[in-house]
C-alpha cells in the first residue's frame, strides 16, 4: 500500500464481518490496488493479507466470465449465452414447481451477500417461486448466538456496542474466538485493553495466537463450554459476587438460573472440562474485580449441538454480575461473514422476513406483503434449516438455486451433502469462480464481485456500510441482482426485482421500517457522508415519507421504535462514557428535535432490554454431553476451524497465489503425546476417521493443543476435507450443526489399517 494521486474509491473488504475500510485506486499496470483508508474507525487502515490481496481475484484467470450450461449430450459444462442460461434455470425451476409443487424448489444463500442481494433472494423465494424452502450458510455461523440473544435480550445484534468500547472495559472473556487469525486488525482492541490495565481471559482448547495474548487461558475439552460457564456462575454465587441490585432491577428469571448453576459444582466442572478449579477461581476473580466486563463468543462455543444454551450460560454470567446493558459492559457475538449480520436480518433465513421480522407473525407478514404488493396469505411459512434443507435435496426438494456458498466443502457430513446435491433434478449456482459446488451444477452463472458493484453490508457491530463500485466488471458477467431479475422476469415477476442496488435498498428500508432491524432512516446518501463510518441499526426514519401499510397492528416479536431497542437509541441513552466517540453520526442531535434524522444506535440496551417488560431474561440451562463423545472405537475429539490466510471453503482464497503459498493445504494438529502414542511424526500423513468418513492430511505436532483433541482447518476439498468427518447433529433451537466436536480415530495413513473386530 502506498500513497497515490489517482482517485480513490472508499470501500470495504469482501471477506469477514469486520468489514475493514479500504480504498481502491487504479494500479499503474492496469486493474486496481488497495490503498489505506485510515479514517475508517473499525480498522484505521490496517488490513490482513486477505483484504490486501482481494483485488487479485478480480483479474484472476480462475474467474468465471461466461455462463456454463451442462450439455444434455455430453454431460459436461459448456459455455452458453446469458439468455440460454437464464432460460434453462427458469425452466428447471418452473418444471419442478409444476410437477412437485412450489416447495420442491429450494434456495440457498450466503452471509457474504450484500443486504440488497439477501433481501432480493428472500423475496425471490417467497414471491417469484412461492417456496418456503430457503435458508443460508449463516445458519452454520452465528445462529446459536442469535437465538440466545433473542431469548435473553429480545434482540440479536452481534455486538451491542462498537468495538471501540472494548479497550475501556475492565475484563474481556473471549470464548472460542481466534481473532488474531480470523479478524487480525481487531486484535488491536485487545492489545489496547491490556495497555489500559484491563484483563483478557481466552477460552480455547488450543493455545492460539489469540490465547497467547491472554492474562489467563482456559483450555477446556471441546464441547464443554456450557459446563464451564455454569461452573463460573456457581463460583460467582458462592463467593458472593452477584450484583443483586442489578438483578432485581434489570432482569427476570434469576432464581431458576441460579438453582441450575448451583447444581454445577466446581469439582464436577473440572472433571467435565479439564479446567482446574483454581483456574476457574482465577477467572471469576479477574472478571468480578474489574468494574466492568464483557463476554465475547465466536464459533468455538456456538457451533455445538447445545450452542444456544451455551451462549445462554455465558449471558447468564453477564447478567448475574451486572455486565450487560451498562456502559462498557455486555455480551457480544463476533459474527463471521462479510454481511453475516445484515444477511440474517432481511429474509434469506428460513423463518424470517426483512427487518428481522418473524415469518410466523401475522403483523409482520401483512407489513412485508404490503411493501411487496402481494396478498399476505400468499407468503409461505417457515422452511427447513440449512443442513435439513441440504439433507432433503433429491427427496422433497428437487431443484436448487444456490448463491454465495460452497457447501461441498463447508457443510457438515460433506460427502453426504455432496451426494444429495448430485441427486437433484436441477442445480443452478451463481458464483465468481467454479467452486466445488458449482462443478456439480446444471447451470453456472458468473457474477460480479465486490469491487465491481455497489451495495450495503452490516458489520459485526451492526454498523451499516456502503461498499462502492470501483471498477467495471469484465464483459460476460452480471450482478446477482440482474440474475434474480432475469429469473423473476421469466417466472412472471420481473417488476418486483429491480437491478439497481439503491432501488432495492429503498424498498428494503420500507420493508424493515418498524421491525427490530429498522433501516428506514438509512440512505445511500447518508452512508456516503463523512468518512463513511456508517450508521448503526436500529435507525428508524423520523420523517417517514411513505405510509405504513399496517400502522395500527402491534408486533410483539419485533420491538417497534417505542417499545424496543430504538428507545435506547436516542442521543440521551448514547450519552454513556463514550458519547464523544466517533462512529455515531448525528449523535449530537438536539433532544426532541422531531425532524432531525435518527442518529442510529451504536449502543443497545442501556435503558432497557428489547423484551416486552424491558428486563433481560435469565434462562435456566444445564450441561449436557456432545452428540458424540469419545469411545473405544473413536477415542479422540476432533475440532475444526480456520487459519489466517484462507477464507471459508477456500473458493476465493485458494485462488490467490500469495495466500495459497502461506497456507497451501490442510493439516491435522495433534499433541506430541498423542503423536508419540500413534507413532506419528511431523508432516507425516495421518488419517482421521469418524462415523461419517475419513480424511487424510499431514500431521502438525504441537503442544499448543489438548492431548485428547485434534484440530483440522476446513478450507480444503478432497482427501483433506475436514467436513468429511463432522457431525451434523443440530442444536434444537438454532439448528446449528456441531462443527466443533465429534469423536474420531487417528491413524498413520501410511502402513496397515489397524484390524478392527
Ligand atoms: N482467516 C479467516 N478469517 C475468517 C474466516 C476464515 O475462514 N478465515 N471466516 C470468517 C467467519 S464466517 C467466521 S464465522 C469467523 C470465525 O472466527 P473464529 O470463531 O475465531 O474461528 P474458528 O477458527 O472457527 O474458531 C475459533 C476457535 O474456537 C476454538 N474451539 C474449537 N472448539 C472449541 C470449543 O469447544 N470451545 C471453545 N471455547 N473453543 C473451541 C478453536 O480452537 C478456534 O481457535 O471468522 C471470520 N474470519
Ligand atoms: N468444519 C467446519 N465447517 C464449517 C465451519 C467450521 O468452523 N468448521 N464454519 C462454518 C461457517 S461459520 C461458515 S460462515 C460456512 C461458510 O462456508 P461457505 O458457505 O462455503 O462460504 P464461502 O466459502 O465464503 O462460500 C461463498 C461462495 O460464494 C462465492 N461468492 C462470494 N461472493 C459472492 C457474491 O457476491 N455472489 C455470489 N453469487 N457468490 C459469491 C464464493 O466464491 C464462494 O464460492 O462454513 C461453515 N463450515
Ligand atoms: S480482517 Fe476481515 S475485513 Fe479486515 S481485511 Fe481481513 S478479511 Fe478483510
Ligand atoms: Mo461464519
Account of the protein in words:
The chain is an alpha/beta fold and 757 residues long. The chain folds into three domains: 68-140 and 339-563, Rossmann fold; 143-333, 3-Layer(aba) Sandwich (Dimethylsulfoxide Reductase, domain 2), CATH 3.40.228; 636-748, Barwin-like endoglucanases, CATH 2.40.40.20. Helices cover 27% and strands 17% of the residues. The chain is built from 22 helices and 30 strands. The strands form eight sheets. A seven-stranded mixed sheet has the order 5-4-18-17-16-6-7, with helices on one face. It has a six-stranded mixed sheet with strand order 24-26-25-30-23-27. α3 links the parallel β6 (105-109) and β7. α7 (225-238) packs across α9 and α7 (225-238) runs parallel beside α13. It is globular, with a radius of gyration of 25 Å. Residues 547-593 and 752-757 have low confidence and may be disordered. The protein binds ligand MGD (2 copies), iron/sulfur cluster and molybdenum atom (MO). Molybdenum atom (MO) binds next to loops. The site of one ligand MGD has 34 residues, from α5, α12 and β23.
Main attributes?
757 residues; alpha/beta; Rossmann fold; Dimethylsulfoxide Reductase, domain 2; Barwin-like endoglucanases; 3 domains; seven-stranded mixed sheet; 17% strand; disordered C terminus; binds ligand MGD; binds iron/sulfur cluster; binds molybdenum atom
- Distance from N terminus to C terminus (CA atoms, Å) equals 60 Å
CATH topology title of the largest domain = Rossmann fold
Proportion of residues in extended strands: 15-25%
Q: Number of helical runs?
A: 22
Largest sheet: 7 strands, mixed
Radius of gyration: 25 Å
- Share of helix, binned: 25-40%
| Low-pLDDT segments | 547-593, 752-757
List the ions, cofactors and other small molecules found in this model: ligand MGD, iron/sulfur cluster, molybdenum atom
What is the typical, i.e. mean, pLDDT?
93
Outline type: globular
CATH architecture of the largest domain: 3-Layer(aba) Sandwich
Number of domains: 3
Provide the structure class: alpha/beta
